[in-house]
Each structure stands twice: as structure tokens, then as C-alpha cells.
Predict the structure.
Amino acid sequence: MPQNNEILENMRIAPEVNRYRIYAPDIANVRRAGQFVIIRIDDHGERIPLTIADADPDRGELILIVQEVGKTTAHLATLKAGDQLKDIIGPLGSPTHINNFGTVVIVGGGIGIAPCYPIAKAMKKAGNHIVTILGARTKDLLIMEDEMRKTSDEVNICTDDGSYGAKGLVTDLLKNYIEEQGNPDLCVAIGPVIMMKFVVETLRPYQIPVIVSLNPIMIDGTGMCGGCRVEVGGETKFVCVDGPEFDGYAVNFDLLMRRLTLYRKQEHEAYELFKRSHRCQIEAEL
Amino acid sequence: MQEIAAKFKEITPKERVKIPRQPMPQQHPDKRVKNFDEVPLGYTVEQAITEANRCIQCKKPSCIDGCPVHINIPEFIEFIAKGNFQRAIESMKKYNMLPAICGRVCPQEEQCEATCVLKHRSEPVAIGRLERFIADWERDHGKIALPSLAPPSGKKVAVVGSGPAGLTVATDLRRSGHEVTMFEAFHAPGGVLFYGIPGFRLPKRIVWAEVKILQKMGVELKLSHVVGKLGTVDSLLEEYGAVFIGTGAGLPYFMGIPGENLTGIYSANEFLTRNNLMRAFEFPTYDTPIVDVGRVAVIGGGNVTMDSARTALRLGAEKVYNIYRRSRVEMPARDEEIERAEEEGVIFKLLHNPVRYSGDENGRVKEMECIRMELGEPDESGRRRPVPIKGSEFTIDVDTVVVAIGNSPNPLIPRTTPDIKVGSHGNIEADTETGKTSKKGVFAAGDIVLGAATVILAMGHARNAASGINEYLQTGKW
Ligand SMILES: Cc1cc2nc3c(=O)[nH]c(=O)nc-3n(C[C@H](O)[C@H](O)[C@H](O)COP(=O)(O)OP(=O)(O)OC[C@H]3O[C@@H](n4cnc5c(N)ncnc54)[C@H](O)[C@@H]3O)c2cc1C
Ligand code: FES
């Protein structure tokens, strides 16, 4: 029997992107699409939010897809099957509002494809026609294509450099789709903040409802610190409890982008320090 | 210690009242602003016995009425005076299970010490310092004995939240022989004692020591478990005979003024949690960062405000302003904490209120506009209402702001337990005598009921709730 919070598998699925299978039966049992967990690797670790990309309640497993962007995610990538995370807290956030809307366009960019997957799956199950638009910088960085194909009726792919699918941005594909097929009933867009911002701008003339999922800096994830606050419709909201999903038209993306950069200096320092000491460790092992 | 106690044997009542109140040894301000270690160092044995001998052992002690949990103050002090520390701590623990904590953080000057008769002649007996002394003596001498437990009752109780309220209920119910499981959302137990109150006022090892005892008694602690997200009160009721809610006042207020979401503006909860729970002051040894604080403004006038201001100083702030809209007398913070903040160099801007913030090109706060205030007619709290003085606006350059204007009850449980009655401020309605809520089998106490209050009130009401739960488990009557 695995231990709670034990990593069952850590697999690299793209450059700097890993897929973790983790034993967390209580959370796997109750989590729903759109929810996230907060993890802490060890006693010195920070608490970081990660979207639940999938779960298997029968086996008690959670799937997390994590891109290496700093010290904590780099540290996570070095862990092996059998290692145990110190804490997994969740499931947090409000689940996605799932309904039979009709046609739902799901736009996923980069690592944002991971949180799109459970939503696409749940929307599909609810009877929607799923049109998926995936974007990545380059072919190697495109993740979860097979999974998304399985839950979608239509998949359109683009890369910034044209190495796979169409050359261009998800907003180009989105615009083409609408011009050719007419307005979908709902759009869900998850990816880099800048992508979500431009997806919303693309949809604005058509007034197609759009849901975005936000990823601010968090600590507790239960509404007690306000570190995750954003502006939605001119009001302050706490993403961890009021979100993470919001009406895309109401979100102040510029503010979110600025808030995400607050610790850039410290994050860089910690990352460099980790890389250096990790390199030493590997050299010592060799 | 017997020799020291013997010195006071022949003392006359007249001489007794002439003994000066013993000062608390503490770290020098210049030194302490550079570390996170505890500021007051605690009485020596000699000081404690001397201070205890100041107590005139009133026939009708008024201090006891001033204590929310009615500690038999003259009794434990008399034992200290005689050098019998073991009996002193035993007496104390009949009423208060967490004296090491209360001795440090209770507002004694408004409670027991406010009603001490010596206050009229000179200065009250330093009851809080003696309380702390006796608790530290017990812990440092390895004398902490596990309380005896009643035979197993076969009943199970879930305690949600591990702050002072949860710790108290868990101890009492475990002593009554019930199986107790305590659920805590954070990865460390203690509630505000851990994440809120800084180590320079309440060292974390003291909180841990209390929790260890609880675990040794057989209380099961489930950390990182958010009730309402991972299961609900209703699902707990299927497994447990009763559920106690002690989830505290965890939701920070902001003022809702322009620019408040600029970076560098924190709620006190976030600022303190980053430091106390996540140890950002030890970054990069610990992974959680905090900004370079620079010039700091802390808004508010309570203990939380002082804690934030003093934390900012220890993080190397260039300047720390405390902006408060009323005057010093209305400040809810303990006098002792205000004095310490002043000694450490906090600059008080009383009768001031922020009206807006502006930021630099990166969205980091750089300036706050304040307005001067004056006191008008008393408001519903009985304090004179602060009113802005028109045209008195001016700006202060700041790099970091900490908003410490209070917290409201945590809404997670009420939101996921629709049939529990909540008041207008989102607080769970519960009878303070029994802890009963509107929902059968569910009890509550502490800040979730009172709104942000005090450790001792949370503990006092939690004790009542523990009796209420005991009775309910025995009789099944609601
Ligand atoms: C910075 C600061 C300084 C203070 N200074 C003083 C002082 O000097 N003197 C004094 O007397 N009082 C002081 N107080 C107030 C005092 O700390 C509180 O009144 C007291 O802690 C309340 O106790 P509680 O048990 O009700 O709640 P809390 O201590 O708030 O504990 C509640 C616990 O429940 C947990 N929780 C919440 N929701 C859930 C959930 N859904 N599932 C599981 N767990 C959950 C929380 O994480 C928390 O650990 C201070 C408060 C702060 C913030
Ligand atoms: S992460 Fe603290 S309130 Fe959302």
C-alpha cells in the first residue's frame, strides 16, 4: 500500500514539464473539475497551488502536471517514485460550473492545457460538443494532445513557430473558428495571463461568454491571507475561494500580471541557489 | 528557592505593600529589533518569589472576577511566594490549561490586574508574569505531567480548528475519556498562536509543547485538512457523536480604497503568516519569500498592528509608521505592546487615515495619501468617532503597507453547512454557556462566534462548550 502523499510516478512529458501520479485517496475521491491543491515538498518548502489535471478515485490517485519555473517546481522534478510530499491540501477552489451549454470551445495554452483537460472531460460528459484549440511555443512543448483528442469532438492546434499544426496564436484559430462556424455557447480559456487576456479581447466583439482560470500567488488557499486577490468587475476577489474561475470579461488581467511578478528577484535567487546545489549533489553522486 | 521564600516569612503587611513591582527583564531594543527571539525574558526565581510576596491575599479577591476563566489567583501566587512551584502550577492548571501562552498574550492590564486592589495604592501584582513564570518553570524542568484520563467512553468527537478554542475543547474532552480527532487546515497546529502572533512575543516551541501533550494524551491531529473542502460538518456527524467548530476569525478586512491591490500591500494575515508559519525571514533557507520591506506603513491600532509593525522592523525596514484613525487611548492593542513598539522605533501617526495609494511603473506601492482625523461624538462602540478634517490630506512615501484593521469569521464552514445559523457579521451563533449552535450535535466557540477577540475568551467559552458536549454525549438531549 502506498503512503498518503506518495509519488507513484514522475514522468517527463515535455521539456521542463512533468506528470506526477500521486497517492492522495481522500482528495481523489471528492475533487471535481476546476479544483486545485496546494502542496509543500518538505519542512522548508513553500506552499504552491497546482491544478488537479485528473484523478482516479478507485486507485486513490491524483494527476498533477507541473512546469519547472522556479525552485519549488525544479525540486519537485527531482523527486522519484516512492518519495513523499510533506503536505497536499485540497481540493481547493470552487469546481467548474458544468452544464449542457451546447458547443463549448476550450482554449488551452502551454501548461494551461493541463487544467483544461478535466473541464473538457466533464463538459463532454455533460453532453456538450467540445471544440478544442491548443497552442504551444513549439511542437515539443505541446502537452496532453492525446488526452484532449479523446475528450474533444474537434481539435485545432497551433504553434508559435509553426513546427506543429498551424503557425500562429490560439486567438487566430479561435477567430477562424467563429467566422466559419458561428458563435459557440461558451468558451473556456486557460493559459498564460497574456493569452487569456487576448482570448477575451478576441471574443469581446461577439460577446461569447468566456470563463478563465487564474493562477495568482497563494499561501493558505482558504481565504485567510488575501495574497491571491484580483480585481473582477471592479471588486476585489480572493481567487482561492471565489475562483479560480471567473467571467473573463470582468477580470483585470494587467493587475494580475503585475501581482505575479512581485517576488521575481527572490524567486530567481532561490532558483539559482537550488540549481547550483543540485548540480553539486549530482556531481558528488557521480 | 526555600531560602528566598524564607526571607519573606517575618514580613509585615506594611512592608509587603512597599515591595516594588518587579520589572520584567527583557532584550534591549537595539538588540531585539535585529532578531526574532522573545523580547521579555521571564522572571528569575528570586523575582518571582519577591513579586508573589506583594500579594496581600485579600479575603475577597477581586482579581478572580477580572479573569475570564476565574483562575484562583491568590492561591497560585501564595504557592509561588512559599517557593512551592509544583503546587502553584497544579492550582493554575485546574482553571487554565495553557498558562505559558496566556501568561504571555493575555491583556492582564484590562482583566485580573485591572481589578487588583494594589492598583489603587501603587501598582497591581504582576499576575501575568507570575503565570508565565510558573508555566515556564514546569516546562523547563520537565515537570509537565499528563493529565489523568477518564475510562474510554466509546464516544468520538471531531474538533475543527486547532487554535486556543480547539486545543481547549480537545484537552477537556479527551480527559473525559472520549476519542478526539482535531482537524486543522494549516500544516501546523495552534491557529493564531502559530501563524499570527510572532515568535518574539510567543515562541513557537511553546505552542508545539502544548500540542505534543495533547498528542500524548491520545488526541489525533489531522493537519492540512480543510473541513468544508475535504468532507463537511455533515459528513463528520456521520462518524462522530459531536462536532466542535473553532475555526477562528480568519478573513482579513481591507479598506476598499483606491490602489489597495498594488503589490507591496499586504493583509496582516499574509504578512504575519509568511513570517511566522513559513519563516520568510529566513529566506532562502526557507523557500517562502517576502519583499524587501523598505519604508513601511502599518494600518490599524490592535495587537495585530503592533505585531506587524515590529515584524517589519525585524525584517530590516528603513522606517515603520503606524497609521491609526483614532488616538492612543482608543488603541485596542495592549499598552505593553504599544510601549515596546515605541521603544523599537515605530513612528506613530495617530488620528490619521489612508485614503488612497499610488504605485510605480511595476505596480508596486510607492506613496500613500493620508488625511488627518479628529474625534467626534461617540459611536456604537462607545469610542469617539473619528472624522476626517477636510483639506488636510498629505502623502507619505512607502514601499510596503500592511493592512491590519481586523478579521471577520471564516466563512468556509457556514457556507458548506447551510443549516447552521450565522449572525450579521458571518459569525456562527452559539450559546456561550453551552457552545450549542442551531444545528444538533454541533458546537462552536472562540473567534468564529465572537469575531476577533482574545485567547482567553476563546478558551473560556471553549471550556463551556466542552461541558456542553459532555452533557450532550451523555444524555443525547439537545
Ligand atoms: C496577530 C495577532 C495577534 C494577537 N494577539 C493577541 C494577544 O496578544 N492577546 C490575545 O488574547 N489575543 C490576541 N489575538 C487574538 C487571539 O489570537 C484570538 O482571539 C484566538 O486565537 C482565537 O482562537 P480560536 O481558537 O477561536 O481561533 P484561531 O486561533 O483563529 O484558530 C482557528 C484555526 O482553525 C483553522 N481552520 C479554519 N477553518 C478551518 C477549516 N475549515 N477546517 C480546518 N481548520 C480550519 C485555522 O487554520 C486556525 O488554525 C491576536 C490575534 C492575531 C491575529
Ligand atoms: S491564498 Fe490566501 S486568501 Fe487566497
